[in-house]
Amino acid sequence: MKEILEAVLAEQYDAIGALPVPEDYRAVTVHKDEQTMFEGIATRDKDPRKSLHIEQVATPELGPGEALVAVMASAINYNTVWTSIFEPVSTFGFLERYGRMSPLASRHDLPYHVVGSDLAGVVVRTGPGVNAWKPGDRVVAHCLSVELESPDGHSDTMMDPEQRIWGFETNFGGLADLALVKSNQLMPKPEHLSWEEAASPGLVNSTAYRQLVSRNGADMKQGDTVLIWGASGGLGSYATQFALNGGATPVCVVSSPEKAEICRKMGADLVIDRNAEGYRFWKDEHSQDQKEWRRFGKKIRELTGGDDPDIVFEHPGRETFGASVYVARKGGTIVTCASTSGYEHQYDNRYLWMNLKRIVGSHFANYREAWEANRLVAKGLVHPTLSRVYPLAETGQAALDVHHNLHQGKVGVLCLAPEEGLGVVDHEKRALHIDAINRFRGV
Questions:
Q1: How far is it, in rounded angstroms, from Cα 397 to Cα 175?
Q2: How many helical (H) and strand (E) elements, i.e. helices and strands, does the chain have?
């Protein structure tokens, strides 16, 4: 890896294709023989620092339609946290099922799992049949791994029965010095961003784009009122930017004055600090408090001048879902992905069926949606929300920060990059957007 890194740092990209690929590389892994290590421990007390290992792993065989990428930087997502604490299931079941699909897929079924679903880096090798990318290309990767051998995926690749999330449901993810991806995961790196900045939007930016903007999600239009839970977080910070850019009015729900200030710096005027307002949507483990739903809805109308949300951007899940269904306007849409507070949602169906509301499930993004989301970053219309960066050796701590919600925006990880701030090509565009690029830094 030393020669490859030296070529990247010297910007000798044309030379990379002639350099040898190492037989092994440094990676962040979880181990199959440790998947029961947290049994009997409360979710919050499960510590990713104990399960995430930094070790040398064998470089995988490069197959048709694939690429090996030298990873300069990556980032932490909730799926890495879930992998590290083996919840809601161990990811080794995903790898075993994938491994049974074909001899080539069997490479993924290993006693260790290289994790991570974001990257920015440089293509090192491409497999047979790859024409759009070559060694030396500077790239980012989205996390949709799809086989496209079924007709179901050809109108929307997310509908393919063999659709997987790379680095979560596949092996050889981005928290490593090398990563194996399908070539149709690759997109051009935004050249005004550093490696760590470019790596951070991938999963959450694409997810928020499909969930809020795409016709496959909420199909947001100008003038919509959009309630955004966790509006300063990884997903919500991009949803807030999309709402503002698209002529909608975001109502940002946060949990502290500091997070409220971030939303205002993004340009959002309507902010609810749920902790300051003291909302408690559950009376106890089994009963929700509809009076709190009504109080929350009243607060939204106070801020909007009487409007209920056309769209509710949902991802906390169990804790907030009943309130989300209640506050959406008649005919409105609750669009949901993930469930960071619990997967078993409860809501009063009277407020859904009698008011003609819709619940739309949304999961990551297809290649076109991911490409469009990345294009907005490259054009300087959407900005990274990177708050803190760790070295690869401290990935466990980075994952713990996300697990305990100690972060804002995204937490980055340096892989091959020896320090922050490298990889910028378009300095003029960067200067135009530097305040927005650094908006989340140090918060």
A1: 13
A2: 15, 18
